[in-house]
Amino acid sequence: MLRRSLTILTVASVLGLTGITTPSVAQDPAPGAETPQTFRHVAAGEATDYGYKLFLPDGYTPDAAGGFPLIYNHHGAGGNGSNLGQIGGAAVLVRGQADFPFIVLSPQVPRNPDWNIVPEALLALLDDVASLHNVDETRIYMTGFSQGGFLTWVLGMMEPERFAALAPVAGGTNLMSLCRAMRSVGVPCGAAPDTVIDACVLTDVPIWAFHGSADTIVRPLEAQTYVDALASCSGNAQMTLTPGLGHSTGPAYVGGALVDWFASHQRAPEATAVDAGDKLATTWGGLR
Questions:
Q1: Most buried residue, 51, 69, 78, 134, by most Cβ within 10 Å?
Q2: C-alpha 175, offset from chain centre
Q3: CA-wise closest residue to 36 among 105, 124, 103
Q4: What is the mean pLDDT of residues 78-105?
């Protein structure tokens, strides 16, 4: 299992928040279809089941040489809960694609999430799925809208050596800011750490961010600040800012441009973990 990069998890471990996991259980996935799965994560003595959808592409076989690329796909806060019918899953990415060779992993965040725990659980889920299926570890990509955009930034910062490319959509980079945004639209949020992370931990990860200029739920400045910071440390980040667009996916998942962009990137097999310990300022305290 790849090392977690952020001090947030070291602190969580001291507080007894880090968890243990049990393998996914559900019906066997079938190539060309998306199936429901369940993953159990235990933290602070409490077990939480995370439902997720797993899409295997046509032609998937467990022993194909080289494995298959995987897109880690995160939903917005409106999909939080325990009913997988609330999240779009692979359909958001697959639609209109004649040839779609990716595995798609779409987890569901529980209602009233504690953001001190959920990020670790989601990374453990990725570890689990990658160990159970024929995943090419050099071609793991991540995207998500709104809450999912935050997760794309944050999980990418926690394990920058894990991902070949990131595409956050209408998302920011601070989990406490996410909690406030959720509550502003009536979505419950349990707690969150206030973390400020040096964007340069993502210097080696290609990033394509999307945002609407008229987004008042998650203001575009939250993403633009990090895109600009990455430019200052020779990062590879770009941002598509759609004029007049509010809090929406906009052009991000229209056509095959993003999927093609993902396919053009591959992580070096020898990529090493980034130690973000000296790049992270963390303020602990509940937002409850």
A1: 69
A2: 13
A3: 105
A4: 93
Write the CB contacts of 157 (distance below 8 Å, at least 6 apart in sequence): 5, 6, 173, 197, 201, 202, 276
The pLDDT confidence band at residue 96, using thresholds 50, 70 and 90, is confident
Report yes or no on 274 lying in a domain. Answer: no
Residue 67: alpha-carbon gap to chain centroid: 21
Residue 262 included in any domain: yes
Task: Specify the CATH number for the domain of residue 23.
Answer: 3.40.50.1820
The total of structural domains in the chain comes to 1
Question: pLDDT tens digit string along 110-119?
Answer: 999 999 999 9
Q: How far apart are CA 259 and CA 95, in angstroms?
A: 11
pLDDT tens-digit series, residues 240-273:
999 999 999 999 999 899 999 999 999 987 655 5
Question: What's the CA gap between 143 and 240, in Å, rounded?
Answer: 14
Q: What is the span of the domain harbouring residue 240?
A: 7-267
The sign of the dihedral angle between the CA atoms of 227, 74, 44, 10 is: negative
Residue in the block written with tokens 């159970």: 132
Give a yes or no: residue 285 inside a domain.
no
Per-residue pLDDT, 44: 82
Comparing C-alpha atoms, which of 184, 136, 145, 188 is closest to residue 163? 136
Question: Rounded to two decimals, what is the model's pTM?
Answer: 0.86
Q: Do residues 157 and 5 make contact, with C-beta atoms less than 8 angstroms apart?
A: yes
**272 part of a folded domain:** no
Q: How would residue 198 be classed by pLDDT, with cut points 50, 70 and 90?
A: confident
Report the 10 Å Cβ neighbour count for 216.
10
Average pLDDT over the chain, rounded to an integer = 86
